[in-house]
Write a structure and sequence with these properties.
The protein folds into 2 domains: 53 residues; 119 residues, Alpha-Beta Plaits (2-Layer Sandwich), CATH 3.30.70.60. It has 5 helices and 5 strands, in the order αβαβααβαββ. Strands 1, 2, 3, 4 and 5 form a 5-stranded mixed beta sheet that branches. Helix 2 packs across helix 5 and helix 3 crosses helix 4. The termini are far apart.
Amino acid sequence: MLSQIPTAYQRPLAIGLPLLCLLVALLLLVPRYRALQADERELARTRTVIRDKKARIAEELSQPLPPPVAYVPGDRTEPVVFLRELSQLAAACGVKFTSVTTTSPEAALAESGAANSGGGNTGTTAAQALPTGVTPIALQISVRGPFAAHVRFFERLENHKRLVSVTSVSMDGSQHPNITSQFRLTRFVGPVPAVAPAPAPAAGASPAAGQS
């Protein structure tokens, strides 16, 4: 077929066809090459971020944990603050609350007594073990999420800044990969500090003292 082409056109075709093929190859390969370069740059940035976060995590883990707060004053803001902190902790770990209910104080005392004594008259033992004025408050909680999120959540509860007791844990994996956990969480509150009365005016002092 090439021999049928006039001699005057054979040389331009012999030169032009390879160049045309090369141009088509460049048009197909260059965008892909640029996309690969962008992916490599993004991968390098991601590796840098991961490396920095691992370094921060290692630095945090190397620091000694502060002693947990045994109990806080049981004022009106305490339940709201505690539930807000617990919700933030759950969200950070990847689990969601499905129910949160408060149990009776007697159940909380019994739970605390069972943990301290291993049995017997739990309510009396718990009342004797706790400092005067300190009261346990128990919540029956149900959370849902992947298994890895549950592991993070219970690990964070173990290292919570407040002293809490997690008991009666049960898990339901019938809706895998999501798992539902039910447990009792007990925290402790103490008496609210009394507000010091305002100092009384000195004897003989006049409200108009110091005024001309």
